[in-house]
Design goal:
The complex is a heterodimer of chains A (about 300) and B (about 425).
Chain A lengths: L1 H4 L3 H34 L2 E2 L7 E2 L3 H7 L2 H34 L4 H13 L2 H11 L7 H8 L14 H26 L3 H9 L4 H12 L1 H16 L3 H6 L14 H10 L4 H27 L2
Antiparallel strand pairs in A: 1-2
Helix pairs in contact in A: 2-14, 3-14, 4-8, 4-11, 5-8, 6-8, 8-11, 11-14, 13-14
Chain B lengths: L1 H24 L4 E8 L2 H17 L3 E8 L1 H11 L8 E5 L3 H6 L13 H7 L8 E2 L2 E2 L2 E13 H6 L9 H11 L1 E2 L5 E6 L3 H16 L17 H15 L12 H6 L3 E7 L3 H5 L6 E4 L11 E10 L5 H14 L2 H10 L3 E2 L2 H4 L2 H4 L4 H8 L2 E2 L6 H17 L4 H20 L2
Parallel strand pairs in B: 1-2, 1-3, 8-9, 11-13
Antiparallel strand pairs in B: 3-11, 4-5, 6-9, 6-10, 6-11, 6-12, 7-8
The chains are: A mainly alpha (about 300), B alpha/beta (about 425).
Chain lengths: ~300, ~425
Amino acid sequence: MALYRNLSIRQKQIVWAWTFLAVPVVFYVVIRFYPTGTAIMISFQEWNLLGARTWTGFDNYIKLWNDPVFWKVFRNTFAYLLIGTPLSLVLSFLIAYHLDQVRFMHGFMRMLYFLPFMTSAVAMAWVWRWFYQAVPIGLFNNILAGFGIAQIEFLNSTTNALPAVLAPAVWAGLGFQVIIFMAGIRAIPTSYYEAARIDGVGWWTILTQITLPLLRPTIVFIVVFSSIGFLRIFDHVFNMTTNNPGGPLNATKPMVLMIYDTAFNSFDMGYAAAQTVVLFTILLCVSLIQLRLLRST
Amino acid sequence: MMKNLKGLALAGLTASSALFATSALAAEPVEIEYWQYFFDARVTAMEQLIEGFEAENPDITVKMTHFPYADYRTKVAAAIPAGEGPDVVQLFYGWLNDYIAAGLIQPLPVDTFAPSDIDRDFFPMVQAMKKDGAYYALPTAVRSLALFYNQRLFDEAGIEAPPANLDELVEIAQKLTKRDGAGNITQVGITTGMTAQDHHWFREVLVRQFGGTPYDEDYKVVGYNSEAGAAALKFYTDLEKEYGVTASGFMDEPQAAFKAGRAGMHIDGSFRIGSLNAIRGLKWGVAELPTAVDGTKSNYSSYWVNAVTSKAEGEKYEAALKFMSYITSDDAMQIWLDVVGELPAKPSVGMTEANANDPVFGPFIKGLAYARTTIFANESSQRQVLVDMVARTDLEGQSVAESLAIAAEAEQKILDTYYSK
């Protein structure tokens, strides 16, 4: 106690700051870092959840390298990322750009776009799953059949299933991205636009020379944010394909679903942990590359 | 107010001292713990059984704990080695090997649970629970497959009786199938879907009915990559491709199509009875699975079993054994049938006049007499193999023989990995 009393006010402030900071630090260590460390350790072990853990060295990683399903899943994951991120970026910018110019019922329109983001992914996935069914229950196919057009196999297809699953995921994320974009657009000082208009510049030049360059931090944020989201996609896929998770023939299976399946259906914890470590590494790399791009501005 | 509080405190003290006094007088009761996963009817049935058991054994109390199915295995695995958790545990028959290997359960003593008696008294597929001359676990109830049919659609199409064999199955299914003007199927004759129960129908029923064996005796070697297996798969895929009496994924799930009255026939397990009963306006019947054209019968049975864990010792062990024999008694099985709708594991209960001729349970119970139990290394992965097998013929146009060979190889790999440990 005497020790504390002898501290200067500044030092006391530091002690208190650390005391309060210790709570989230401890929380993070226990909830995040400890399990992460354990997962890395388990990835070098064999464990079926029931018996003892045995060390197996790099066996799980070698198995992963030689597993054709892993490479299929790897490609799927990047398909989600490479289709999902640019698509949602362009769509959300277009919506935000035009929504920004709408005065009539602006708040209501914004709410409509934000609504899907607030909806539970599970509920949304099941509704879309129903949309995609074949005649007589599926909404889309009933409409097609009503016009005498042949049905489309949305989910029961190795080529259509991935885009079909991705569509509601993109739609669900749009609301958030639109709001961020609109905030970014509003933050651009109007004086730039006034100066441009005085100079008689067209809308295309304004868009490409003023709006987009000044939105760069916003764009980078949305790209990083949605990339992480698409790399970790799980709930939409799982709920739309519960009968045959990630199917048909692994056509929609993302990495997280493979991890889940390995861990909680096959109870092969070591192998699942190895997949987790790989996913973690991918996420880390993608995020670091994108942050590097941010810093270069 | 103050006075009231004092009074309350005094009353509490007296009551608790009275409680202590009585418990000191009576013999120390043994408390054992029973764990199962949460399913409403199962919990109700078990509560009834525990009540009956405690009435018979006043010195034993049974505490039941249940968990959502998703957490069940993890909780059991964490609790028992830590010396916590159940003395008697319920587990899926397919998990038995893992539980034995992990030392979570102990064999039932041969003097009270004589293997020869169990062999004689239970339906034959229960013998999968016997290892090295002793039983490790016993079921209260079992499940089997049967053919559900929609009575209203049968009447409408003028069909008098459910199909007796596979030829009749196709014939009747054709009469029940409806299409719209564009040729889109709007009502299926029979539902299909390897993701539901069809993978069992294929493995244990169709492959055998076409003259093959799905596995070797120990279920360690895949045997369906044969002419018989190919014939069975051809029959199965032809239901959609050749005869056009079904569409895989029709109305999302086979049971959904049947419940909606859009399917004439549907193969499913006895556990579906309860949810079909809850559908108003659906008139349905049950028949035994169709036989092969030469009359060969087969069926698949699965079950949940009860076992004594390695945690139970001393007087708890004795109490756990008593509880085990109580919940595998004839009376317990009748309660389980009445409350949960699952079939008795002993012919002495199942084959009674009333049960075997029950219009709903009867066909399932009769099926038990010739049912087999697949010993899975990993049921969901092995099911996935068959799901993919049919998907390859359907979506990628692969030939039946080729797809079957790939499936057999993939499943063999799962079995080899599992048994090499």
